[in-house]
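Just scan my protein:

——
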Amino acid sequence: MRIGLIGTGRIGAFHAGVLSRHPEVGSLVVADADPARAAEVAGITGAIAAPTVDDVFAWGVDAVVIASATAAHPDLIARAARAGLPAFCEKPIALDLPGTLRALREVDASDTPLQLGFMRRFDTGYRAARDAVRAGRLGRLHTVRAITSDPAPPPAAYLPLSGGLYRDCLVHDFDILRWVTGREVTEVYATGSDTGHAMFREAGDVDTAAALLTLDDGTLATATATRCNGAGYDVRMELAGERDQIAVGLDDRTPLTSTEPLGPPPADNPWPGFLERFAPAYAAELDAFVRLARGDRDNPCDGHEALRALRIAEACELSRRERRPVRLEEIASAL
C-alpha cells in the first residue's frame, strides 16, 4: 500500500515512524504546511516528502492519515472522501459541532471509511476493563472515575485553537467511558477552574475541569482533567461494581505517591507524556487502519463515534458556562 500522511508535527512524526515500519505499507508520502519539517521527517523515516498537500492526493495514494492542525481536518476529511480514499484522522473532526456535522455528511455521501484517532480503545488496560465489564465480573456497575492529567500546559498559542479542555482533552475520557461501559451519557454537570496561568483566562478556557456524568442505566461517572499535574502524565479509570472494583492505568510508572506506611513506593520513572504512555496503542490503531483500508476488518471507531464523544464535550462546555445540568438531548446530533 502507498499511504499519504498529512502533518508532520509531534504526533505526525510518530505516526510516520510507525507506518514506515509497517509490513503492509510499501511506501509512505508525507506533507506538511512547513515543507522543511516534512523533509526532515522523510529523511528520518525513509518516506517520500511531497512538496504540498495537493501532491499527496495527486500521487496516487491508497489511503491518507491526517495529523495536521485541527483547523485543516474538515477540509482534508472531505477531500479524502470525495477522492474515495479511506482516511484516518486524529481527533477532533472539527473544532465545533457544525463543522463536524458537515464533514460527516461528506463521508456518509461517499461511503468511504473514516477512522478517528481515539487510541485508548487500543490500550491493553482499557481493553481488559471493557472485557471485565461486558463479562459481568464487576456485577452491577455503579461508579466510574476517569482521570486525565497533563504534566504541563501546552503553549499559549495552542489554547485558542484547541477547542477547550473538554473538547481537546476530556473528549478522550468521554469516548472511552462509552466504549468500556457500553452505555450512553444522558446528562452532565460540569465546572472548571482558570486560577492557574493567565493564558487560560485570556483564551476563555480552564486549566482544570470536572464533570459529573449520568449514564442511561443510572451509573454515575466523574471525569476530571488538568493541564497542571507536575508529578507527570496521569491517565486512569476506576470502575466499581457490586462485586468487584478495577483500575486502568495503575502501574509502576503512575505519578501517584501513597502516604500510607505500607503503600507502594513512588514511581522512579513516571510517565512524561501521552506518546510514551500510549505508544503501543497508537501503533495498534494505525495497524487497524491499514487493515481497514485493505478491507480486512471493520471500522473500530468511525466518525459517528467521535460525534457522540463531542456531543458530551459540548454539553459539558454549555454546563460550565451556564452553571446548570445539561441533558444530551439539548445538543444537536442530526446530520
Observations:
- The first strand starts at residue 2 and ends at 6.
- The mean pLDDT is 96.
- Residues 8 and 34 are 9 Å apart (CA to CA).
